[in-house]
């Protein structure tokens, strides 16, 4: 079906989207996203009205974009255009931002970070939103988007939020840092993770502390890190201590 769509004209795809039964539309939207031809993306742009369409159909479009194996810059541009300046339901906005992060990350993996303006626009949308966000749930979504993007230049921003934010923010930022490969887990990142785990500056949520411990254990841990993590288990609840002990055993294996 995708092969058929690749050779179809915009007007034919648009007509198909408008005429198929409602229960078939999610499949057709997903196929049009997978096709990523100029015609299919133009048809989706005309068809999808983010102020009117039912949420499940819009979510299907955004999920299909986010999980696209090799997205194009044009697909990211379409997502950005659909999210820009519109009154969106919280669920659609959240899914959209996380999708933007995923698309930016995948395009950068294709070495397109500095070559396409739309990738810069996508990253700036997330960073600007994070700077301007006043409500904690919005900050968390932007941090999730940064975690999806996995761009090394955002690590300092994630570290600031991981160490100094409120509970949900610190957990989201630390979880985002977990997604980076070992070459990007620097000595500075490890120092912050130690302070979080051992609660040097303030108390942290259990999930956040465990994420910090995982980052230390998954990225060439020093002997002293392992010793200190094991010593800390004596002061933890059984569930948290057991998790850490299993993690250390897995690292040893």
From TrEMBL:
GO terms for cellular component: basolateral plasma membrane; endoplasmic reticulum; Golgi apparatus. It comes from the Eukaryota. GO terms for biological process: lipoprotein metabolic process. Residues 1-234 form the Vitellogenin domain. GO terms for molecular function: phospholipid transporter activity. It holds the Pfam family Vitellogenin_N. InterPro entries: Lipovitellin_superhlx_dom, MTTP, Vitellogenin_N. This is MTP protein. The lineage of its organism: Eukaryota, Metazoa, Chordata, Craniata, Vertebrata.
